[in-house]
Amino acid sequence: MRIEELERASLTEVGEHLRRLTGRDGVRISEVCDLLLKKAVVSRCSDVHIEPTHRGTRVRFRIDGVFQDAAVLPIELHEQLVARVKVLADLLTHRREIVQEGRISLEVGGSRTDLRVSIVPTVAGEKVVARIFAATRAYFQLDQIGYDPAMTQKTRALLFDLEGLFLLTGPSGSGKTTTLYALLSEIANELDAYASIITIEDPVEFQFGQWSQMQVNRQVNLDFAAGLKAALRQDPEVIMVGEIRDFETAETALRAGLTGHLVMSTLHSGSAPETVTRLINMDLEPFVVASALTGTIAQRLVRRLCEACREQAPVDAPKLDLLRRLYRGGAPEELVLWTGKGCEACQFTGYSGRIPLAELLDVDEEVRSLILEKARTSTIRQRLLARGWQTLLDDGLRKAAQGLTTAEELLRAVSLREVS
User: Fold this and answer.
1) Which pTM value belongs to this model?
2) Pairing relationship of beta strands 164-169 and 293-305 according to DSSP bridges
3) How many CB atoms within 10 Å of residue 65?
4) How many other C-beta atoms are found inside a 10 Å radius of the C-beta of residue 319?
5) How confident is the model at residue 416 (pLDDT cuts 50, 70, 90)?
6) Hey, what long-range contacts does 4-13 have (CB within 8 A, 24 or more apart)?
7) Which value, to the nearest 10 degrees, does the dihedral of the CA atoms of residues 193, 194, 199, 204 take?
8) Does position 65 have pLDDT exceeding 70, yes or no?
9) What is the pLDDT of residue 380?
10) 261 near 237, Cβ under 8 Å?
């Protein structure tokens, strides 16, 4: 199938075409693999899962965070399909008992797309997961991320001081790295004459060419902590560390923020206030955290309603009642729900792309005093709410009311336990 046909074809049609290909003699596994990977790219897929099951080789695409079945292929072809992926990723085809990782560079529709491949042995055979990095689909401008305009303006103000520690937090797959890239692009475009930028990443997902990017290599003891210490000797103004995982990296990042550098990184925590207490629980001195931390953003990704087919949803009284109770200070009188009817533009899913729900914690004098007191997360949260702080839930309710996403997506992404 040509690229134009792949773009028009539904996943069901592609699955049927693959079954016909694999059901005849002399099947070319290279053609099957090429068709699967290219369809994944044109379908805006983020991950391809190829795994052996009792029904056959199951191929699934993760599109906008949700799995969709692409095909179930004969299990007899599984080893050949995995071997073909290994060849493309320059991996060892004869080793089936070890974990392997590699990269595939694919040209689709005149543009280059990179895939990061992970292969692990299972009791039923090897499972393949290919993560797709398509620069043409990524948003690397802060205005395009989908933040509230007031939050975007406040984030710029915090970053353009070029000092302190700024953290992104959220679960895996919540868009933290993409947001960091957008923040770096903002600084590079606006403050190029003043800011030298260097990053330490694992892995380097996109190569920008605007700033220096370091790849973590633990075989030569180049981890995040060692990379950060080396970067500090490169006369930088801005350092991005892919993730803060341990005390040593966190302490070095905080002290760099105290000495006139802007350090940006990610941390796993449930909310922006929880980030503060998470740092203290890593045995970092509260006065260092209070002095160096300038801000933190917590975010989740939800599916964006397709603009071509979105419409107001029928009134669902129980759901409306639940949403009204989630509004702090009272819900609007006219509370409208939205849904996606499904059309060719969104492959009949009702959704097209994803947007973040986000909350920004600006570390001001009041928050610093709470950090010095080693206040609990709940205490910090209540003090912030008392002065009108906007939470993940507030942002989600606003975007659901605007028809950018649905109530179902909001309730899926934001735990009611977290926002109570």
Assistant:
1) 0.87
2) parallel
3) 19
4) 14
5) low
6) 6/35, 6/38, 6/39, 6/42, 7/42, 9/39, 10/347, 10/348, 11/39, 11/43, 11/61, 11/68, 11/69, 11/70, 11/347
7) -20
8) yes
9) 95
10) yes
